[in-house]
Amino acid sequence: MSTSDTSTPASADRSLRGLLFLLATIAGVSVANIYFNQPLLANFRQSFPGSASWVGVVPAVTQLGYAAGMLLLAPLGDRFDRRRLILLQIVGMCVALVVAAAAPTLSVLIVASLAIGVLATIAQQAVPFAAELAPPSGRGHAVGMVMSGLLLGILLARTASGVIAEYFGWRAVFGASVVALLALAVVIILRLPNSQPTSKLPYGKLLLSMWHLVVEHRALREASLTGAALFAAFSIFWSVLALLLAGAPFHLGPQAAGLFGIVGAAGALAAPLAGKFADRRGPRAIITVSIVLVALAFVVFGASAKSIAGLVVGVIVLDIGVQAAQISNQSRIYALKPDARSRVNTVYMVAYFIGGALGSGVGAAVWPALGWLGVSVAGIVFAGLAAWNHLRLPARAAH
């Protein structure tokens, strides 16, 4: 009996780590599908020459679908078993991917891409699932581990897509994703436990309740705005980087901008570490440091308009800052209302992506008018907005 008793905690810890690794894989493999099409636009033009001017719609509708899926599907994790939802979305995703791979016209590819975007929100079931499985003292680390998988999926999706398309054609990219998802589904069936629904609200009231959560929890509003401001700063940089590298003195093509994404893996690797610090020191302290790092990154960017080394250093600091804040914010909001984690996550992520869209728009407007220095100042302004919003809420009211 004593041997069993002493081995149980270690065995449970190994089991939890295995489940978190599986959830990280689910998040990464699923979210990668909304980025696979971005390097393939030239291939689409060749396959559909009569609709070449419309190929840019493909990544746009995929992102739109993801936003819609976050709002309409992600809250269902509070109402139904997340394991079953993940499996159902994988089935739907595989159907959409097969349609995309076999698309005879660009119109069919656009419709399939919209469906892929909606269903890729599997990732938004995996993160709150991790928060449910982990003990409160390890929630930050658990969320960080799953987020690291999601971030690696985002970073490596374009690289994988480009390599597969180079040797096997663009249709094989979607086919390879089907194979990966089906293999993942088998592991999910064998290893992932069922989750316990925490709400019995009808679908309409489930969606409406998200507004009540926003009104009820000041800390959710604060975390959402802070996250949105930091992601806006992040998006300003990434939306303009290729334009900076294309001009003097670099004269580099889009492939160079893609390689900077690999540098951003530092942020993904830092995510679990940020989660551990959030568990030990408290998430608000980590968010404060993260905001300082983001502001510092844009100071480095402003001084690095002609320096690749400076840009690389800035990217590492920016990604670590943004991802550490993301993990800490999510750790905070999941503690607000444990029976509504999927809905809380939806509120936060919708605000987060609105911030990203705003940042991309500001970057597009500032670059032609004020150049790289203007872009760097705009990034500092968004970091300042995050700081003002974060620090104006007393720590005692932030829970």
Automatic annotation (TrEMBL):
The chain crosses the membrane at residues 18-36, 51-73, 85-103, 109-130, 142-164, 170-190, 228-250, 256-273, 285-302, 308-325, 346-366, 372-391. PROSITE patterns: MFS. InterPro entries: MFS (IPR011701), MFS_dom (IPR020846), MFS_trans_sf (IPR036259). SUPFAM superfamilies: MFS general substrate transporter. Keywords: Membrane, Transmembrane, Transmembrane helix. GO terms for molecular function: transmembrane transporter activity. Residues 16-396 form the Major facilitator superfamily (MFS) profile domain. This is Putative transporter. It comes from Paraburkholderia ultramafica.
